[in-house]
């Protein structure tokens, strides 16, 4: 009796998936498919602009004749913020959609999960956003490349400015998970190398997304630091800033902060934006290069909205994927790897290269200071820092990265 | 010294926010016994609506008026939900309402992004409470002081409402004994609706009042719901004062805990709950629940083993399923393996819930322990796959043996929440112990060996183990042990009277369920090639609950169908639509309405009725059903 229902359920499930798989076979000849995975439902604030960015890139590529004459198609999947679901999606993209490569991902653990999947199944994977150093170093593999400047690189950029500060007593506030932990660890290490006189007087580790900002601010203030390193972002950052402003935590203290200059995280703060924080970010309003102007114009024309950093990441991910596919002239993963190692291309931030040694791109980031203008937060005194200037020596990387 | 006073006040302000939401949940649960998973969604809606209103209407009146109106608007939505959806399912099996509110929560999460957009929204500061007050060199935000005052005021108003009005008397009576209140002729429909409205109002008010401190976003609901549940349980279900004390306790421990252990926040509330429940099984201010007056005729038709024909049918289905690799591609096979694994996981929880009557909210812990067991054995000890598959689940067994011992001392929702606390403790160990577990970056590279690596081989392996698990658990259900377990479930006192050691029986059942879940986790680790703390997270535990409830908790193996339907649908929707949560949530709500006893439960009842009408005189004993009083 009960068996029939089991059968029926299974049959429906199988039938629906099988039909999905069959219809996609026919088109394969005239197009190249890229499989894209991201946490669309979990992190819409980042992924919506990101999606717009890569859709613009696809449009541009196909308008220019596609990849070696073939039309580029991006098939996009949501991972819901779960590594296991990301692997299910990756598997679908590879096994039934026959994509030439995988791209995307935001969270570090999802990036690592897909990277491990790529290594196991021998599929080319271009990680877009995950910041963890592990993905190119300690857990790096030959199938995985990464676009965004890593934790280490962003920390190194910030340290350059932070080391100039007179402050000797430092406190840290970071979300309690891998990203926060490694950001703090790298920052501390690089900072203490440059400034052995520094004391680390307090650290706060609120759970990601669940900061109880009042007590955290009060506890940090109680340690009486001269400067603060902040790694929180998103809703946590808003709460921290609001409590910190009200309680006067930031008065007379310099704050160095990861990612806070990105429009995704800076714009919600509106007139509560604290001034003078040293941050990494994306000042789209003050970048005056021909490459960026072209991107900005195209983006605003298409969406009637300004780009966020996610837009850049999405755009450049697909541009890079297309460049690699065009150079390889094949979707064979070995040829893709050969093509990607050392490939140079233009980007809205200038020319970037995917390094052979650790598969990290040299895309950089902007640093600057936060300021208030017309009730909105902006970055001033901005400077673009090339990724290639903030990476450790080749010898160090050899030690970090497992041999292929 | 001034610092400690300020830190204490800061903790009190957090407590007040927490209490507002928790009180509403406590009231709703106390009277309707609904585990209102959507409480967080109402909290979030309150914040979003209040954001819109306070942005539109300026001035002090606009702000405070906007907050109150937002709470009222959401309360009206709550009333609609209660009247349209929940009223249909008050007579469904215990916890079935959880499924409906879970579906609602999923829908609301997608809806707010559709309506209000993906960005975090930062609302205005409260007029008159923008700054801070200097206290011996320390700053206290005046809004904190406002919240600190508001908490006791709300507590006082609720107390007056419950102690001094006829409505309050009825609510208290219903909290103590619903059936008796109904028997005395009180209109329950009206009572439930009004209670639900008040509870939702408080949740929405709590959300709206966060505007000056928080960023309104689509993840607010999950952030608050679990914590609020914990507070309610620590305080004692249905006790408003308990909720208040618990909120203060949790918030103060956090405020001072982070001074000594900055990483404590992530696990603190669960540690407190575990300790409180072990020492005081009914929470700080709760009273022992009266022994359930449930009649033994719980199930529609008494359970029986499959007949020969049904067995043949089941085997036929298994053969068909085993033939899948000859027609399907790799992706379908991998999804098939995943579904088979979730069948194992769901039947293990189903065994605990339907046979043991013990609903666990933290069953993913044992799934995750099995997965970590495999990962650690294969990565650190380098054991072969077979050995890992056999030994890995033992970690699940071990965990279940330790935690189960404490958990089975409790019953009902207290049992559920203690299992949740244990699961969160295990999760946080996996999350924090970076040197062994890799933290949230997990353990990678746990791939199956050559003989099982191809999707078809792994599918057969998973399917075979799933079939074995279902058969073994069914055998246990109809063994003397199974009967003893059911006796303990239906009537602990009578069971004890005939010499059944109920606690030990339940403990054994807990260990069995945990081990089978560990087996599922072990397979899952090999399927995905990696293990993450996610594998023991709350959302996985909730998924398992949903599968069991969807299948039908009053059936012998309904979870098999529940797991297949839910998992297949979930994977398919996530792959096909950007609004998977909205569609999935809507689907869950529809199923709840269409199949008020779960899919298999409703179908069984339907078949049973048909059989009865076709051979009406066959066996009156078997078909006589005793309605429980509610």
TrEMBL record, chain A:
InterPro entries, per the entry: BCAA_transport, Leu-bd, Peripla_BP_I
GO BP annotation list: amino acid transport
Keywords: Amino-acid transport, Signal, Transport
Residues in Leucine-binding protein domain copies: 32-362
SUPFAM superfamilies: Periplasmic binding protein-like I
Source taxon at top rank: Bacteria
Coiled coil: none
Family, as annotated: Belongs to the leucine-binding protein family.
Protein name per UniProt: ABC transporter substrate-binding protein
From TrEMBL, chain B:
Alphabetical keyword list: Amino-acid transport, Cell membrane, Membrane, Transmembrane, Transmembrane helix, Transport
Keyword Transmembrane part of the UniProt annotation: yes
TM helices/strands, residue ranges: 6-27, 34-51, 63-86, 98-117, 145-162, 190-212, 224-249, 256-279, 312-333, 340-361, 381-406, 413-434, 458-485, 505-527, 547-569, 581-600
Membrane topology annotation: Multi-pass membrane protein
GO biological process: amino acid transport
GO molecular function, one term: branched-chain amino acid transmembrane transporter activity
One Pfam family hit: BPD_transp_2
A GO cellular component entry from the record: plasma membrane
Domain of life of the source: Bacteria
Keyword Membrane assigned: yes
Subcellular location per the Swiss-Prot or TrEMBL entry: Cell membrane
Record-linked InterPro entries: ABC_transp_permease (IPR001851), BCAA_transport_permease (IPR052157), LivM-like (IPR043428)
Protein family membership: Belongs to the binding-protein-dependent transport system permease family. LivHM subfamily.
Listed name of the protein: ABC transporter permease
Originating species: Bradyrhizobium uaiense
Lineage: Bacteria, Pseudomonadati, Pseudomonadota, Alphaproteobacteria, Hyphomicrobiales
